[in-house]
Amino acid sequence: MNFFEPFADKPAIIIDIGQAYTKCGFAGESAPHAIIPTQVTLNSQRFYLHNYKLLPHGIETLKEMFIEFLYNVYYKILNANSRERKVVIVESIMTSSDFRKTLADVLFNDFHAVSVLLIPTHLACTYTLGISRALVVDMGYNDCQIMPISDGYSLTNLCSFAKLGAKHLHDYLKILIEKYALVTVDGNRVLFSSLSNQPTLTEKILEDIKLRCCFVTSFERAQKIYKQMEIKQTDSFTDLEFQFAPECDYTIESMIVHIPGYVREMACEIFFKNEIDSDQCLQNLIIDTICKTPIDLKKEFASNVVLAGGGCMLDGFKPRLAKEINALIETKSNVFPCQKLSYHKTPSHENYTAWLGGAIFGSLDILDNYSIQNTQHKESESLPDWFSIQIRNNLVQT
What is the Cα–Cα distance from 394 to 366, expressed in whole angstroms? Predict the structure, then answer.
């Protein structure tokens, strides 16, 4: 170890607390040290931090959950002394005030953090790429958020939200498996739904099936499938004369479940096709968000689309989205200012793009100017967010 290392400024700790997974590591590094479930154990059961309202004594329980969770992050994963570190929290703009305030209170009062900075997820993505303006499409666990970013600010009045997150996909995948999957029982293949004692399709199992078996089918194949369904006037995949992908076997509780090819291909179609409300499809939301932006920024946002979040890592997702958007633009050529969108390739996996932006910002000398110091937090009753921060005389004003 370098003799001067103990006296040097220690890098800040960067924590991106997502709905399902948390990324944690140090400023200046290219990847998080760990990606862990955003869960703690209470009474022998696992609970997500963001579900604290479903538990008795909501805020008090949330504080206990934070203490256990952050202790694990500080001392078991990062092996860092909380009293010696600044903290950067990458947070969703949808985070509730109670959640933010409780988190800050625990960091300052229980872990005695030197300072804390709360930076919006979408804005952090732009620091990863070093750009000032972008349209950030964040495919998270609970929802999809499409946010225009301009010169360090999230244009929240122009953003779009839709229930197109991983949880929505898991729910739809569960319906398809229960309806179409087959199970081998005593040498015979029977419908999953016909079992009297069905294996439990937990969130963890559904996520594993999604990653191992499912993929986003190509734009051309999807059009052929929908054309057949329209001709045959059916919404059942079993009625189609189409060669889907081969079936995939998956073991649940010592039982082999045969997942048909049409389930593997069509589960992810919820992102691109909505029978009830076509405006809630991903490609429509992106185009509509760009159309809502000021006329002098439309082309700039269309040329700087950033895809973030774990949902973007599904096989075939990015090329399918690009073709869906191009097809939609052709139908709106008279009102849309661009012939196509341009997408940034991030220097990281999409699931920690925002964390990397926080790690870059956390290594800058101006971190202290934006952060809330421990002494300031004790003197102030309110917790400022990014939208209320102003730099003046190297202090945070609210």
Answer: 9
Asked whether the beta carbons of 202 and 177 are under 8 A apart, the reply is no
> What pLDDT is attached to residue 274?
77
- Give the predicted TM-score (pTM) of the model: 0.90
The DSSP secondary-structure symbol of 108 reads: I
What are the two backbone dihedrals, phi and then psi, of residue 367, each rounded to the nearest 5 degrees? -55, -45
CA within 13 Å, CB half, 301: 28
* Maximal C-alpha separation, the chain: 76
CA terminus-to-terminus distance, the chain: 41
Q: Answer yes or no: are the C-beta atoms of 193 and 179 closer than 8 Å.
A: yes
The mean pLDDT values, 10 residues at a time, for the chain of 398 residues are: 49 95 95 95 85 82 93 95 94 89 93 93 94 94 93 89 92 94 88 88 94 94 91 83 91 90 93 76 93 90 95 94 93 80 94 96 90 82 63 40
Helix (H, G, I), strand (E, B) or coil at 257: strand
Q: What is the DSSP string of 339-379?
A: SS--B---SS-GGGHHHHHHHHHHTSTTHHHHSEEHHHHHH
Structure tokens at 232: 């045959």
Q: What is the dihedral of CA 21, 14, 128, 315, to 10 degrees?
A: -20
- Quick one: CA dihedral 242, 244, 250, 256, positive or negative? positive
The partner residues of 16 in beta bridges, in order of sequence, read 23, 90
What lies within 8 Å, CB to CB, of 321 at 6+ separation is: 271, 272, 282, 283, 307
Nearest 5°: the CA angle 167, 99, 91 is: 65
pLDDT at 396: 41
d(CA 135, CA 343) in angstroms, rounded, equals 10
